[in-house]
Amino acid sequence: MKRSAFSLHATRMAVLALALGSLAGCESLNDMFASDRVNYKDTSSAPPLAVPKDLSSAPGDQKYVAPPATVALGGAAQRTVTQQGNAVLGVPSAQDPLGMHVERDGDRRWLVVDGRTPDDVWPQLQEFWSDNGFTLTTDSPNTGIMTTDWAENRANIPDDWFRRTIGRVIDFAYSSGTRDRFRTLVSRGPDGQTDISVTHSAMEEMLTGQDKTGSKWVERPRDPALEAEFLAKIMQKFGLTDAQSKQLLTDARPSVAAVKVAAGPDGTTLNLPEAFDTAWLRVGLALDRTNFTVDNRDREKGIYYVRYADSMQELKGDGLFGKLFYNPKKANKNQGPEFQIAVRPNGSSTQVAVLNESGQVDTSSDAQRIVSALHAQLN
Question: If you ran DSSP here, which 8-state letter would residue 190 be given?
Fold first, then answer.
């Protein structure tokens, strides 16, 4: 794993500390070889990102404290005890004895919680991301969008003998050179259930220049395995065991429908051969996996409001000098134009189109690129 120029300098300083006589305690072999896949709790994050002005703020209390698992208090959903003895947030049924199941479309998975509304699960999700070391930069129950800050997975830093001894004195200076962000979409399903998806975005700091003293941030591919890891952790937050959550991921039910492109004189649209509720969820998942980020969404009108996501601009504030000179307000002004993605019922199918400011199908080249990106993701 690469280390940033600042991290390499920190290592040299640690060597100097050793020469001056700084010592650290020894650890057992078990501790030396122990490792976790996920550890964001001790991370140093990028500066808070500004929430778009047109995105409504969460009305809920950010200091929400969860009640005991089986007690309904303050609007929290009462948990149900399953035959297996789990106190789960979902409502068990013959089809879903654990009160929830997982559905998939290719390598994309989402959790379906039976008998619960988005309002029922929202406080638990807020608490979940906080427990895992994240700060929420978007927390909007009105739109069902929850986004974390950019954070570092400390489990990716090599745990060599030097870091386990002298390196602990300045462990904060070590960096994996990577940042991760997670977006949670919470949607109301057609039968009173709630659909929850987690999407991963990633950046990596690459050293530049002949002497490797500079650096720049580049995008990394999303990690479906990491998305599944957090989906499993959410299921455990909702009352399942580690083994049960992994089994539900393994038994994920397919939810696939072919998407067709309809090109006409009035513009290009997509036709999904499925009902609006399912199409709405699939389009949201597809948008989350393109370079367009969802600023807002109106399910009643069937519209997603999206804009191009410049992740590298957002991460300019990371690092020693970035925190001194980065201006998030100025960066927010430089964001690209907003597009409207309309998802509308069309008989037994659903039509998806990019709209212009007049509410008509957008025929611009940018709109065509969005349609092509959606088609690729949906298929």
Answer: T
Q: What is the model's pTM?
A: 0.62
Q: What is the residue type of 317?
A: G
Q: For 238-281, what is each residue's pLDDT tens digit?
A: 999 999 999 999 999 987 667 888 887 777 889 988 889 888 98
Distances (CA, A) of 344 to 79, 152, 262, 267, 283: 35, 39, 14, 16, 11
Q: What is the CATH number of the domain that holds 337?
A: 3.30.310.170
Cα 304 to Cα 343: distance, rounded to the nearest angstrom: 8
Say yes or no: 243 and 129 in one domain.
yes
pLDDT in tens, 283-342: 988 887 777 778 889 999 999 998 876 655 555 554 434 443 444 454 444 456 788 999
Give the whole-angstrom CA distance, residue 350 versus residue 277. Answer: 9
Report CA-CA distances (Å) from 25 to 163, 168, 202, 323: 12, 10, 35, 34
**β-pair partners for 350:** 272, 345
